[in-house]
Here is the input.
Amino acid sequence: MTDLIFFALLFCGSYLIGRYKERKHFADIIRREKELLLLPALTMKRAEDRPVAKAELVTGSVVIAGDFFKQVMAQLASLFGMRITVAESMMDRARREALLRMKAQAAGADAILNVRFESMKIGAREKVAGVEVLAFGTAVYYRQ
Here is the structure.
């Protein structure tokens, strides 16, 4: 009986704390996205036919961990072949955070071209303990 109570407390506590932290992180992401809105990050290899003064590789990476609640829900969803919506929000946060870190590294650039993402699940087998996302691209500085 005590094991069941401990599980319920851990499950509910993980949900509440995880939800609070996720909302706080999303609010921070939205604030930073507004600040870096003027720096375009494009998947195209070439944006303009202007002479380039400098180009450099820029990267941004992040590891986002899933809480106990997300792990349990992901296991249940995969057991029944359903969409793993708790992992979708984790991936969204990770991609957006990696992109923001890449943009911060490219401060002063006119654009970031050929932007790509790589991701990797962190965890054993079907458990989704977390996700790592790497964003990379070419920061381009045009001649004035």
